Amino acid sequence: MKLFSQLFTNLDWLRGFLPSKVNVNYLERARACLGALTGILTTALLCHHLLSSQASLPFIIAPMGASAVLLFAQPSSPLAQPWSLLAGNMLSALVGVTCAVYLGSTPFAAALAVAAAIAAMFTCRCLHPPGGAIALSAVLGDSAIHELGFRYVWLPVGLNSILLLALAIIFNNLTRHRYPHQQQHDNKNVHKTADITPIARLGFSAEDVNQVIQKYDEVLDISPDDLANLFAQTEMHTYRRRFETISCADIMSRDMVSVNYETPLDQAWQLLRKHKIKSLPVINQDKQIVGIVSLVDFMKHASLDHYQGLDNKLKRFVEQLFQNQTGKKRIVGEIMTTKVYTAQDNAHIVDLVPVLSDGGMHHIPIVDQIGHLVGIVTQSDLIAALYRARLNDVQMLDIDAK
């Protein structure tokens, strides 16, 4: 029994040699491969042309292959950002050449070059794994590299890095991978005040994530902001799983008040006042939403969103808003907002939480599978639904406890 126990223990230890499954679909894998092919091939061809006069000089160095893996397969990694690539590669080359000049091509020089390169990259916040290979190649390279001396930092390392980076910026953005990867600032609210967003007030904060990372005390190949975003998405996924039966169709208002493009502004204004609402969906003949008109649109059109001369603006608002200079009635289509956020009727209500809380929106039109307007969800609707869902959850826990 003891032998079997030790065997299984060893198997568990051996499993640690295998990484976790890569949750990337085949389209993304093909995109990364195509990016690396394009980046390395174009860089090699350009450098071969530019350095044709120096036949002994390598037109592209092997560590660029490792840089390509990061740039095209992991473009969101902190190790793959422009500063990490350029400064990491060139600083490592400088360290490697220095070790080669003063210590020669010795095993100690090779080891010191890699260690010193890592220390330098840590100090300059440009950790880039291929930098270690570049430092090593500067020490153990052939005579052509040694003859270059400190020129090796610029040619070919600097030239290779700059060209590969330019191609990565173009390719990643063309394939809908924002690069350089921008840090998320989800805790900034739309009202431009110091308060963090409503969702973040009772959950974990970016500072909480940073504190945990500091205690972890190990380099993570993901930025703190991205890690916090993954945690937030996990919370939302958990909520969706627990209350999977509640959709937008369950909580939306179905008896809607709407207008069309040609509706006179004065009629739309009266509808807002009569029903004590703040917005009206604008639909076409096929009941598809083409815009939305709100109190804010009325105020902006009359320049009432600026305080100066408010009395005169109010008077002009009453006199001119509902008709033009020729006396013809103005219509909703002139002032409506055409960029409208909508949600599917079968979408889970948890999808609306970030939009209605942190996004500053107060109402979301709901459409069916063919784009027809079928309802509208307001902040009040969402609050009531979340309260009822939570109340039911507590009641079920009480029943289970009994």
TrEMBL record:
It comes from the Bacteria. Keywords: CBS domain, Membrane, Transmembrane, Transmembrane helix. PROSITE patterns: CBS. The keyword Transmembrane helix applies. Residues 252-312, 336-394 form the CBS domain. The keyword Nucleotide-binding does not apply. Coiled coil: none annotated. InterPro entries: CBS_dom, CBS_dom_sf, HPP, TM_HPP. The chain crosses the membrane at residues 109-128, 149-171. This is HPP family protein. It comes from Undibacterium danionis.
